[in-house]
Amino acid sequence: MANAHCTEAYLLYSIFLASLVLGQINYSIPEESEIGSFTGNIAEDLGIKLRELSDRRPQLLQRETNHYFEFNMQNGILFVSKRIDREMLCLEVSICSISLDIVLENPYEIFPLEVEILDINDNSPIFPTDVISLQLPEILAPGVRFPLESAHDRDVGSYSIASYHLSHNEFFSLQIQERKDGRKIAELLLEKSLDREKNPSFELILTAEDGGIPSNSGTSKIFITVTDINDNAPVFDQDIYKLSVLENARLGMLLITLNAIDLDEGPNAEFKYSFSNYASQKVRELFHLDAKTGEVKVQGLLDFETAHDYELDVQAMDNLPNVGHAKVLVSIVDVNDNAPDIKLASVMKSIPEDAAEGIVVAIFGVTDRDSGENGLVRCQIPMDMPFKLETTFSNHYKITTSKKLDRETISQYNISISAYDAGMPSLTTIETITVSVSDVNDNIPQFAQSTYDVYLMENNAPGGSVFSVSALDPDLEKNGDVTYSILDNMPQNQLQPSYFAINSKSGNIFALRSFDYEQLKKFRFTILAQDAGSPSLSTTAVVRIIILDQNDNPPFIISPSTWNSSASFAMVPRSIPPSYLVAKVIANDEDSGQNARLSFEIIDASDINLFTVGQHTGEIRTTRTLTKDDSATQKLVVLVKDNGQPSLSSTVTIHVSFTENGTGNPSERSENQKNVDYYPDLNIYLILIFGSTSLIFLLIIILLVVIKCKQDRSRNIYHRSSTYCCCKRSNSNPVLHRRPVINESQNYYAGGQMLAKSDPYHYTVRLSPASSKSDFLFLSNCQPTLTLNDISTDNSVGK
After folding, report:
1. What CATH number is associated with residue 507?
2. Number of folded domains in the chain?
């Protein structure tokens, strides 16, 4: 029979209304529709062509926990996906509907959808009990009515209970009353006075029928017992009691105390309070009526969202029983006991950090089951995030980007959506969505320094690590994968990058050759750091290599020049006084700093006590006057060493020849001057001797100069890199000129002082015969003729 009802309802409502009123689509289907039943063509009702439907990315947002419908994105049809029992879904509400939302994401639009669930006649009337027992005093006059327990039909409207029928008899009939909520109440009407002695009892059949075609029905038996007289029924002091109670009332809370009076006396005046047959089962579950005291208390959880008010049918029944009836109307007052509910429709899990402003990150809706101010909901998100909240439709929102994102600053956002109502106190629901920021290649690799100064000791081992550079790129994966290379962009006079190699991953720089401080002191090259992003980003840094000096060059003897590549000769008169400058050793060291700081000492001599050498000046002087016992030829070996660690040295051998002259001993000369009267002709002799000696000495010097120049010319053929020049002065005095070419990277020592190395000065060493100190050495300018390397010196001890 239920299938017949379903078929009838389906035929009756197969044609339904689909209209767009203020942006809302309304459909209606009968309950118990088969799964897959057609509900409506959403695409057609929204005016969207099927070929455009998938591009609009529609989504069905269901507010109910149970998803009763599904949406076909191919044809735009809404169909039933789950069995719908209207009575379970909406209880006894006359209009039952399910609210849905259709969300179109491209562009964003939302349309509310209301599907009304139509009732079918799938339930029969049911009485609370199968047997109704009544005891009626015989004294009752015709016209007395007795309420009967009403049948209950879960269907609504025309399918609910339509009529009651009583089996035929001459004493009783039915009188039907309709309540304001549409329910029909059957009352038993006494048509004829009772006579207990003739009819002590009655058995009647009460039938309830609903309004379906065909109708469904239910029955209950009525057993009536006629009792002895008790002619007064209890009477309530009010027919209707009205009260209000908060929906969060505690269990056991006293609502009201009923009061009834029975004018009878004795046992006939005793009565009890109870719910009448009119009271529904829900009322009996939520409220308790004390039979003796008449106190009405709360015994179940009240919920304003389920029912706003209740009607309690109470009675006072004595032993007859005589019954007095009253009503208690209980209004439920709403309290803010429902927090807002957030329903997420769409969430973007990841967004690129270069996303433009206004990109939709999430779409959601909020509801609150409370009413009035308690159901007014507002939403917000944190203000310190690059997102903003926008209202799209009634209680529907979207979250969009409001600022530029930077993954290197914040890579993930936990956006807390706070929905709070306007109740007192306000209730809040927080839903957190996580949005990750994906990386783009927007960061250039950064070196810690733009310029690196690297100090490298000369004579380094080829292939060794010189330095390591590092550039940081905060991007992820390949966008932050940095490789290194050396740029080939140096000037022509600089060291080529092929002398260095760099590890492309670690940034370690390796020297491919050994360097010489005397050839090259510093140079620079450029390092390129480049990431693997698309497009690739890069930066550069300059590496300046500074070669440090090592003591790897022995001193080089510049003066005096050697004789026959082995020794130097000096001629001095035997009459020289103490501290007489015999010769001066000038040396150079191609190293720098302490490695080029030179000192001089005599390591071997024919007479070790006759000569001394200045430790820093290189000047060789006599320590005393010569005697007749001193040999005419003296040999000196002078050691020149630097201040490096370990120290390097060179030696030079000097042969000193003493010549006889008429100058005499200076000390004796001074004594003779004191006694002029004793030696009257001494001055004349002295002048003659001095003149002849000077002439001889001058001839010897000229001879030596001529010989020396011839030797130098022949030596130029063999020593191509030396620099000598022989020239004549304006007074025709022969002079030996000697010019060393000083490289700007070399330090020279002369007279105990280091010569400047920034300018290429040229020097000439001269021997001046015009002075009595004929072997004094000094420096003057000369044009270069030979290179410095052609000067032959003894660079090792014992050579």
Report:
1. 2.60.40.60
2. 6
